[in-house]
C-alpha cells in the first residue's frame, strides 16, 4: 500500500505533463498566419531547365498574369508551417463548380506532363487548406480574391515595370512598387537564378511574390518576421513564353478555358 501511495503523486505529475503537452500541441495546430504564393509564369518557365519542365495545362493557356501557387498555413510564433492536419482529407471538385473557370485561369499547374490542375488543388487543400477553419469552397474562393486584390501585374505596370526579354529592373524599384499596394512589410520577392557561366555570370528571374495574409484569408497583414529575398540587386521580369508558343506572349484570350463535361463527376 505504501508503494501505491508513493506512485500516485508521480502518476498525477506525469498526467499533468501529458495534458500540458497535449494542450501545447493542440494550440500549435491552429494556424494564425497564411502565406499567399503568387507565381510569375514568365520567370518560372524561363528559369527551370529553359522551360523543359514547364507545360501548358490541358485546359489551355492560363491567364497572362501572376498565378496562385498556394495559400500556406503557419504558426506565426514559431515560424513553422502547419500541414497535413487531417490524414483522412478528401478533395471534392463538385463544390468548386462555380470557381472552376477561375481556377483554370488563375490557379493552374504548369508542371509536366500537362494536366488539368486537380492534383495540385488536392495537394494544396489537404496540405494547407484543411488546417484552416475554412471550408473547401471558401478557402479556394478567398485565395482567388486575394490574388485579384494583390493586383501585382497592374501595380508593377503602373510604375513602369513590365515584362521584357532584355530589360532588367532593380530589386529596390520592384519592392517599392509593390509596397504601394501591399504595404512595405507584408511581402517578399523571390527569384530563380539561371547561370550563364557558373558561378560568376547569372541572371535572377522574378518568379514568385510571397505575401502574409490573415488567418481568415481576407486581408494582407504585416509579416511577424522580416521575409528575406533570394534575388540579387537586378532582376529580369521575363515575358510569358510557354514551350509550345515561343516568340509570343501567353494570352488567356487565345485559348479560353472550358469546363470538361466529365470533370464535375470526379472526386479525389
TrEMBL record:
Lineage, uppermost ranks: Eukaryota, Viridiplantae, Streptophyta, Embryophyta, Tracheophyta
GO molecular function: ribonuclease T2 activity; RNA binding
Record protein name field: SPARK domain-containing protein
Organism: Musa balbisiana (Banana)
Signal peptide: 1-27
GO BP annotations, alphabetical order: RNA catabolic process
GO cellular component, one term: extracellular region
Family: Belongs to the RNase T2 family.
Family matches, as Gene3D superfamilies: Ribonuclease T2-like (3.90.730.10)
Key words of the record: Signal
InterPro entries named in the record: RNase_T2-like, RNase_T2-like_sf
Amino acid at each position: 500500500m505504501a508503494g501505491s501511495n508513493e506512485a500516485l503523486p508521480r502518476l498525477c505529475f506525469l498526467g499533468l505533463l501529458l495534458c500540458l503537452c497535449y494542450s501545447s500541441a493542440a494550440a500549435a495546430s491552429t494556424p494564425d498566419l497564411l502565406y499567399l504564393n503568387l507565381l510569375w509564369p514568365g520567370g518560372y518557365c524561363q528559369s527551370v531547365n529553359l522551360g523543359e519542365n514547364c507545360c501548358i495545362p490541358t485546359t489551355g493557356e492560363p491567364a497572362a498574369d501572376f498565378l496562385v501557387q498556394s495559400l500556406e498555413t503557419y504558426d506565426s510564433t514559431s515560424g513553422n508551417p502547419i500541414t497535413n492536419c487531417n490524414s483522412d482529407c478528401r478533395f471534392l471538385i463538385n463544390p468548386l463548380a462555380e470557381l472552376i473557370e477561375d481556377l483554370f485561369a488563375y490557379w493552374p499547374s504548369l508542371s509536366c506532363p500537362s494536366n488539368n490542375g486537380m492534383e495540385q488543388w488536392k495537394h494544396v487543400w489537404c496540405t494547407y487548406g484543411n488546417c484552416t477553419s475554412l471550408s473547401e469552397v471558401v478557402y479556394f474562393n478567398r485565395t482567388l480574391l486575394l490574388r485579384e486584390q494583390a493586383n501585382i501585374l497592374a501595380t508593377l505596370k503602373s510604375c513602369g515595370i513590365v515584362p521584357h526579354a532584355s530589360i532588367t529592373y532593380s530589386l529596390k524599384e520592384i519592392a517599392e512598387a509593390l509596397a504601394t499596394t501591399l504595404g512595405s512589410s507584408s511581402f517578399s520577392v523571390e527569384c530563380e537564378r539561371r547561370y550563364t557561366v557558373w558561378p560568376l555570370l547569372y541572371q535572377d528571374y522574378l518568379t514568385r511574390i510571397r505575401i502574409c495574409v490573415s488567418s481568415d484569408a481576407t486581408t494582407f497583414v504585416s509579416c511577424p518576421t522580416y521575409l528575406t529575398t533570394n534575388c540579387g540587386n537586378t532582376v529580369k521580369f521575363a515575358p510569358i513564353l510557354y514551350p509550345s508558343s515561343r516568340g509570343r506572349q501567353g494570352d488567356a484570350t487565345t485559348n479560353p478555358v472550358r469546363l470538361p463535361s466529365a470533370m464535375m463527376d470526379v472526386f479525389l
